[in-house]
Amino acid sequence: MDDEKPLPRPAQSVPGEVRFQAFRQAEALVRRRPLAALKALEPVLDAEPDKPSVQLLAGRAYFHSAQLNRAERALSRVIELDPSDHYARFVLGRTLQRLGRLVEALAQLRMASAMNPVPEYQDAIGEVSARLALGNP
Fold this sequence. Notes:
Layout: H1 16-29, H2 34-47, H3 52-64, H4 68-81, H5 86-98, H6 102-115, H7 119-133
Helix pairs in contact: 1-2, 2-3, 3-4, 3-5, 4-5, 5-6, 6-7
């Protein structure tokens, strides 16, 4: 059928060094060219779909390419695999904010800030809190 996805390739079909280089290439591209980053990341996603660092990088690329539902899924998967990943929670919070789900965004941003109280996280909390206070849920 046309809607069936191809089965992922086993991890051993793509050598570790090739996956490492693909990951590094995607990392270098994620902000400037997120679609190219996703393309570079494909063999790594196929080989290691449950690796938090791979899902986080995919989530960031989806976020930067405005594929927000995919970003949410990838970042939620990171948090499932590693609940202590404050950066994944921050990017998930920003994703939810862009989706207009401000209450959920605020919860993720607060957790991220509690884990790592950096100014960027606290600024995001202030921004979302202000929008909620203005009645813009």
